[in-house]
Design a protein that fits this description.
It is built from 8 helices and 3 strands, in the order ααααβββαααα. By secondary structure, the protein is mainly alpha-helical. It has a single domain (2-157), classed as Lysozyme.
């Protein structure tokens, strides 16, 4: 009896009504093997901080498969070529973007909520700057160059 109850509880902990928990269900749909606790936390954060959570899920999938990991590479810092983290978190916020927004790089590296909050603000700013593009405005999150935007738009739309 105890085993049955424990098993039922375990199976139902992360089962949600998709008509209510649309963001969570979108995350599970595009990445079925994701850790359910992480998916729920990410879903809740996007619900609370993003004006365009479904676009954010698709961007997160395109950028880093929604993983909270960083990308390492080379970049210019104070005029010198440096090696280190170039993009942060599930939405791959670039180090130059982080500097332009005066973000705390250490916090961006370890705090999922901080990462979601700033991704949401950056995405909102990019959409405003590119509103002339209509539904493709989010593609400015990646680049202001037309060819790169078009390519990015197509890649992100695979997850919509």
């Amino acid at each position: 009896m105890k085993l049955t109850l424990a098993l039922l509880f375990t199976l139902n902990v992360y089962t949600y009504d998709c008509s209510i928990h649309k963001i969570y269900c979108k995350i599970i749909k595009v990445k079925p093997n994701i850790d359910r606790r992480y998916a729920k936390r990410l879903s809740d954060l996007l619900y609370n901080h993003s004006k365009t959570p479904m676009i954010s899920v698709a961007i997160g999938m395109q950028e880093n498969l929604l993983r909270f990991t960083d990308r390492y590479g080379s970049f210019y810092y104070n005029g010198k070529l440096t090696r280190g983290i170039t993009d942060f978190g599930p939405f791959q916020i670039h180090v130059d973007t982080a500097k332009n927004y005066n973000l705390n790089l250490e916090k961006l590296n370890i705090d999922l909520e901080y990462n979601v909050i700033w991704h949401s603000k950056i995405l909102e700013d990019k959409i405003k700057k590119c509103k002339r593009l209509g539904p493709k405005a989010f593609s400015c999150y990646h680049s202001f160059t037309e060819e790169l935007r078009e390519n990015y738009y197509k890649k992100v739309m695979r997850f919509m």
